[in-house]
Design brief:
Strand content: 35-45%
Mean pLDDT: 86
Largest sheet: 4 strands, antiparallel
């Protein structure tokens, strides 16, 4: 069986480990991508710092967990090398 793919993603700010609000165009602070997969499972798949990286729902929908982590690694390396 193939790995589950993301069908919906919410990008939100985190404060003290709690999701505060869905946000668009974050400019700083810790954020998280919470994904709903095609098997019905929902999980926080990607915590990151919004002043360093950005993600959109369009970028992660259709990806597997592994592909999301690959995308994070690629963006993180590009940020660190800039």
């Amino acid at each position: 069986m193939s790995e589950a793919k993301i069908v919906r993603a919410v990008i939100a700010l985190l404060r003290a480990g709690r999701i505060l609000e869905e946000v668009f165009g974050l400019s700083g602070g810790q954020a998280v991508v919470t994904a709903t997969f095609d098997d019905g499972e929902e999980e926080r798949v990607l915590p990151y710092y919004a002043d360093e990286l950005t993600f959109t729902e369009q970028e992660v929908v259709g990806l597997t967990r592994e592909e999301v982590m690959d995308l994070f690694t690629k963006k993180d390396i590009a940020y660190l090398q800039s």
